[in-house]
Amino acid sequence: MVGELFLSAFLGLAFERLASIDIVTFFRGGKLKDDLLKKLEIKLLSINAVFNDAEERQMRDPNVKAWLDEVKDAVYEAEDLLDEIETEVYKTKSESEFENTSSKVRNFFTNVSVNPFEKKIESRIEDVLNKLEFLANQVELLELKKGSGIGGKLSQRLQSSSLVDESSIYGRDDDKNVLTKLVLSDNGSANHPSVITIVGMGGLGKTTLVQLVYNDKRMEDHFDLKAWVCVSEEFDVRRVTRAILEAITLSNDDARDLNALQVKLAEKLMGGKFLLVLDDVWNENHSPWEVLRNPFCYGAPGSKILVTTRSERVASTMYSAEILHLKQLSEEDCWMLFAAHAFNKGDPLANPRLNVIGKKIVKKCKGLPLALKTLGSLLRTRLFLENGKVF
Ligand SMILES: Nc1ncnc2c1ncn2[C@@H]1O[C@H](COP(=O)(O)OP(=O)(O)O)[C@@H](O)[C@H]1O
Ligand SMILES: [Mg+2]
């Protein structure tokens, strides 16, 4: 039972990973045959949709059980593929960082030829796709009903606010120090505030890191004004401008006109050193950003804008002075975070099997805090439901 439950959650994790920007950038430039990864995602989604029903029915229906077993294999295969792609992306990245300037020339040539890794991975993705296709076709025959699979929850994101419960956060000390230093540094000379962008896939902890820095006491002394805006959806200049204004004044503003809003915002910012957070930005076009940032030059030098995004492109769109690539949590922090959600104090000591299972799950979470939290809580509810009888 637990196997299937987690499998479903891993499907959710796979969607986050598929959306991961690194992978997308790697395969951009037409290297990977038409949107193979997108197709993989769609197939996984369609199977995920009938997951709950299949899980319930497998006890009664051996055909459903057989179907689930095959799905399991295919999903694990897809996971392995993602692992390999991510490793390759990482390798290519550190190589090109190492090669530095000469890499531009070299990349130009490697782009032209076909990388053997991509060829190989391409045919394996096709294999997995065929399997999933075959399994998806059986959904109707088995009369599996659509509902939402558990994994889908991983992608449902809420709006963020600046508040954070620091006692529940693990690790990130170094990241926090680096970012705090950058935010407090006063080397910006231009009249536009410098933009610092945190890039990383969904659920990695970008928002959390920025919350930690934003709430650091030193910010109060250093800045005259602070504002937190969750951008998330569409990058509508008027909506975002109003949100910034309201975040500064902590009151509603009913001005409809962009000009009125921008003039008011400029007045508020006038001569003050401000820290603005734009959380979860997706916009990859220069023009809206250029309009949005007009009022910002009224602030004092040393003002900073902190941006979080999944996309490297967003970072360049916003003319970031600094780009931080957030890394996965360390192994030790992963375990602590997971254990805090999964177990009551002492559980893993009393039950060594739990410890083993827990370790396996943590390994699958790839250092993603969101996955660790979700799977940890799932394990706890499942343990609770089975009331002492641990699978
Ligand atoms: N270092 C951490 N320790 C504990 N929980 C974390 C940590 N980083 C993130 N989380 C939790 O994981 C979830 C996703 O983090 P979030 O910052 O929203 O990710 P992102 O902004 O990169 O999508 C949140 O529920 C957050 O509380
Ligand atoms: Mg976020």
TrEMBL record:
Coiled-coil segments: 37-88, 118-145
One MF annotation (Gene Ontology) recorded for this entry: ADP binding
Span of domain Disease resistance N-terminal: 33-98
UniProt superkingdom: Eukaryota
Swiss-Prot/TrEMBL keywords: ATP-binding, Coiled coil, Nucleotide-binding, Plant defense, Repeat
Annotated ranges, domain NB-ARC: 191-345
Biological process annotations from GO: defense response
UniProt-recorded name of the protein: Disease resistance protein
Source organism per UniProt: Quillaja saponaria (Soap bark tree)
